[in-house]
Amino acid sequence: MKKLATLLIVLLPFVTQAQTTTTDFLASLADICVEDDGVFKNCDELYGKDGSALFFIIIPKEGAQKWYSREVKGLKGATFEKNNVLTKKVEAINKAALSKQFDVWVFYVDKKYTKRVDMDNAYNLKIPRITHLYHLESGRSNWKKLESFEVKTEADDAKENAWRTVFVDKVIAASNAKK
């Protein structure tokens, strides 16, 4: 029994726990766009003031399609006009309160993996780089790191895009499965 206790004490520091960060990713969020299914994303490439790259996915907690269907009822106009109204509604939510109504994920690339090029396209992503995926849980201020993807070669760019797409499709499907 003493050997087991000693072993646990020795191994305990090596047990990995979910990594979290208090980095305020939402401070960089601007210009979001809604898709017809109630999923919000940043409209364009987004770089933080420090040069880090961010890509947000924002999905209503009750389910994207369910939320979207409810919110567009009574709105007049073409789909793009309805989407503009919904986008303004979400943009008006205090960033600190956003996670109470929405699930928020961010694909994040640290500034050390970006390169300033010019004013029109301020930064490019370097190779190699690591993209981290974080999730902001409801009512929390800490972002939980879910996964990371390492791009070592140009060929890995396509794999990284596929990784993002699979993840986004998975969370949208899970969202729309909510009753």
What is the 3D shape? globular
Number of domains: 1
- In terms of per-residue confidence, which ranges show pLDDT below 50 for 5 or more consecutive residues? 1-17
DSSP strand count: 10
Written description of the protein model:
The chain is an alpha+beta fold and 179 residues long. It has one domain (21-176). It has helices at 2-11, 64-72, 79-91, 98-101, 155-176; strands spanning 20-21, 32-34, 40-42, 46-47, 53-60, 102-109, 114-116, 123-125, 129-136, 143-151. The strands form 2 sheets. Strands 1, 2, 3, 4, 5, 6, 9 and 10 form an 8-stranded antiparallel β-sheet that branches. Strand 2 (32-34) and strand 3 (40-42) form a beta hairpin. The model is unreliable at 1-17 (pLDDT under 50).
Q: How would you briefly describe this protein structure?
A:
This protein is an alpha+beta fold. The protein has helices spanning 2-11, 64-72, 79-91, 98-101, 155-176; strands spanning 20-21, 32-34, 40-42, 46-47, 53-60, 102-109, 114-116, 123-125, 129-136, 143-151.
